[in-house]
Structures are given as C-alpha cells and as structure tokens.
Amino acid sequence: MTNAPLLQSLPRASRREEMFPKLADGLVGRLIEHGRVRQASSGEVLVEPGESTKIFFVVITGEIEIVRPRAKFEQLIAVLGPGMFTGEVNMLSGRRGLTQLRVSQPGEIVELEREQLLELVQTDSELSDILMRAFILRRVELIEQRLGDVVLLGSSHCADTLRIKEFLTRNDHPYSWIDLDRDSSVQDLLDHFRVSQEDVPVVICHDKVVLRNPTNQQIAGCLGFNDAIEQTHVRDLVIVGAGPAGLAAGVYGASEGLDVLMLDSDSPAAKPVRVPR
C-alpha cells in the first residue's frame, strides 16, 4: 500500500489523534454554514454498513459511535465527541460504507450532503487538509486491521486468487484472506456456503453473498464501486485509461470546465474528474 509509510511514521497515539481530530469551534462554524444542524436522539442509527455514503456528520454535542457489526458481536472502532466528524475515503468516492454510525449520547449534529462536502474541500484549504488526512488514515487503518466486508478464500498458487487480491488492493478495499493451502479448518466454512474446491477462489461479500471465481466486474458490482456514478448522465468527455496520459487529459479537460469521466480496467468504478474552482 502506498499509504503504509504514512502510518508507520506516526506513533500509535499520534496516529489516533490524526485519524480522529477535534475541530476548533471556528472550523465547526464554517461547516455549519454549509450544512444544517439538527437534534440526534440516543440509539439513532445514522448509517448502516453497506449503505451508500451520502451524508457527512459533525458532532456539536453528544456522541456518535463507529461500530463494525460482526456475525455474533460488534466491534467498537471509535467514539466521536464534540468537534469530531464521521467519514473516510468512501465519503469522497461515494462508495458504500463499511461501518455503522450510531448515536450513543443525544445532542446536536451537523449534516452535510456529500456534494456539499466535495465543494467545501475544494474551496477551504484548511478544512481540506484536516479532512483528507483523517479520511486517508482511517481507510489505511481499516485495511491494516482487515475491517472490511469481504472474505477471500483461495490459494497463493492460484492466478485468479492473486488477481482478486490485486484488484481489492488497488481499489483500497479492506478484506480478510484465508489461504486454503494452510488453513486446515477452512473445509467447514466451505461446507457452510456449499462451496466445492472447484469453485475457488471464492469471494464472500457482506457475510452473505458468495461469488465463485468472480470477475473483477462482478466484485465491483457486489461492493457497489459504481454506485456514485449516474449511469444515464451524458458527459462532455470520457477518457479510457487512468495512466499518466489519461490523468493529464482528465485534469486539463476539467480545468476547461468540461464534465469529465475516467474509466480504468483495474478499477471498474468510473471516476468523475474535479478541479478546484
């Protein structure tokens, strides 16, 4: 992962502070100007895992818990108090969330639509630096701790297993990996999902959807990588390929005011190109 050195250079306590910073009152005030303030009641679920990330929350008073539900228990990731905010990289990409957001102490929260947040990070450099750093660190932590919604069963000697691992890694999507050549107890899991050895590699999405030797496109569809893209929207420019030439063309096109969409084979999710105005 290209972001790993960023995490390794931070002590654990400092990393936690960078992942979950507390915004000064002035910065919270600027967010309030772009969103709306409302009351949140105890026990209210703001976002469920697997839902498209459309709302960004900031705590004014009270507390929000970030929880990762598991099959038989739930894992508490963080508790957000006054001045703290929700979201990670999927807030920018519009992909589905991996965690549940739940109000643990009633109070006031600020809500911003995803589009409002995208506009804000392009125009407010101070807030942008804080949010972007926190979002990136949170995603890398999810990857390091394997707190994702995907389990991959395969063999390190299998080309398709390596293809799927590369695809998930390039898309920065956290996943758990079970090596069939080393884990002798995995047969019980295969029997549970009625999977034979001929079906591997197997991808289990959201603990319930079983994909047998899927294509990259099938995995992208199961995980909702394309959910944020309006399929019927007509673009001014579509660029196929996200290499150096494609990226340059996208930036130049967007800087001229064109509505640009970029497609890449390693990341089926289409990418709208934006530049600060």
List the main descriptive attributes of the protein structure presented here:
alpha+beta; Glutaredoxin; globular; 10 helices; 3 domains; 277 residues; four-stranded mixed beta sheet; Jelly Rolls; four-stranded antiparallel beta sheet; 26% strand
Q: Spans with pLDDT under 50 lasting ≥5 residues?
A: 1-11
- N-to-C SSE string, H for helix and E for strand: HHHEEEEEHEEHHEHEHEEHEHEE
Strand content: 25-35%
Main β-sheet, spatial strand arrangement: 2-6-4-5
Terminal CA distance reads 31 Å
Query: Can you count the helices?
Result: 10
CATH architecture of the largest domain: Sandwich
Largest sheet: 4 strands, antiparallel
Annotated CATH homologous superfamily of the largest domain: Jelly Rolls
Helix-residue proportion: 25-40%
Question: Mean pLDDT across all residues, rounded?
Answer: 85
Query: What structural class results from the helix and strand content?
Result: alpha+beta
Count of discrete structural domains:
3
Radius of gyration: 20 Å
Could you tell me the CATH topology label of the largest domain: Jelly Rolls
Report the principal-axis shape.
globular
Describe the structure.
- This protein is of the alpha+beta class and 277 residues long.
- The chain has three domains: 4-144, Jelly Rolls (Sandwich), CATH 2.60.120.10; 150-223, Glutaredoxin (3-Layer(aba) Sandwich), CATH 3.40.30.10; 237-273, no CATH class.
- Helices cover 35% and strands 26% of the residues.
- The chain contains ten helices and 14 strands.
- It has helices at 4-8, 12-19, 25-34, 89-93, 114-123, 125-144, 159-170, 186-192, 216-223, 244-255; strands spanning 36-40, 45-47, 55-59, 63-69, 74-80, 100-105, 107-113, 150-154, 176-179, 202-205, 209-212, 237-240, 260-264, 267-273.
- A four-stranded antiparallel β-sheet has the order 2-6-4-5, with no helix packed on it. Strands 9-8-10-11 form a four-stranded mixed β-sheet, with helices on one face. The protein has a three-stranded antiparallel β-sheet with strand order 1-7-3.
- α5 crosses α6 (125-144).
